[in-house]
Amino acid sequence: MPKTAKIKTANEDGSNDEVVEMVFDDKDWEILEDFAKYAAEMESNPLIRDGIPVSLNETWTAGEGLKVEAKIPLDEQIDAMLMKLRPFLLENESTNFDKVKNLIGKATSNERVRQHLKALDSFYSGAHMQSIFVAGAKA
User: Fold this and answer.
1) Which residues are paired to 19 by β-bridges?
2) Residue 129: is its pLDDT beyond 70?
3) Neighbour-count burial of 117, counting CB atoms closer than 10 A to its CB (0-12 exposed, 13-18 middle, 19+ buried)
4) Rounded distance, CA 133 to CA 131, Å?
5) Which of 103, 108, 122, 133 has its CA 20 to 30 A from that of 64?
6) Which residues, in sequence order, are CB contacts of 51 under 8 Å at separation 6+?
7) Are the C-beta atoms of residues 113 and 9 closer than 8 Å to each other?
8) Taking the C-alpha atoms of 42, 70, 130 and 65 in order, what is their torsion angle to the nearest 10 degrees?
9) Where are the domains of the chain?
10) Contact in structure between 24 and 10 (CB atoms under 8 Å)
11) Angle at 114 between CA 112 and CA 118, to 5 degrees
């Protein structure tokens, strides 16, 4: 039996809100439920909940060259987070981010939802970060 999901969309300033209805079959609904369950588990991971304590410091000086200092979480913390990420990252998982994004995209023709999915994809793929990360040297 088909299941209906409704989401409320709005402009960035909260104006012009609109409710978008999407219909999913039982199989797709189960995938969405699993995705939501895994996302809730992911939120409970300390590196996600509290933020990932990472720092990177690069310096270059004439005669010495490039010096890089990095501080990252413990291996055990990273391993725990990666285990929680598996359902979203592995291509053979039904809850793979791209598959779920496409599943939602097929369920709606709403342009605002499609633009939001496109923005999420940009963050997920790393394209957004690549567009803002600039490395350079101070003169």
Assistant:
1) 8
2) no
3) middle
4) 6
5) 133
6) none
7) yes
8) -170
9) 3-132
10) no
11) 115
Half-sphere exposure of 89 toward its Cβ, with a 13 Å CA cutoff?
8
| Tokens encoding 50 | 């509290």
The span from the CA of 34 to the CA of 16, in Å, is 31
Q: What is the tens place of the pLDDT at every residue in 83-112? A: 999 999 999 999 999 999 999 999 999 999
**Residue pLDDT, tens place only, 14-50:** 888 999 999 999 999 999 999 999 999 999 988 889 9
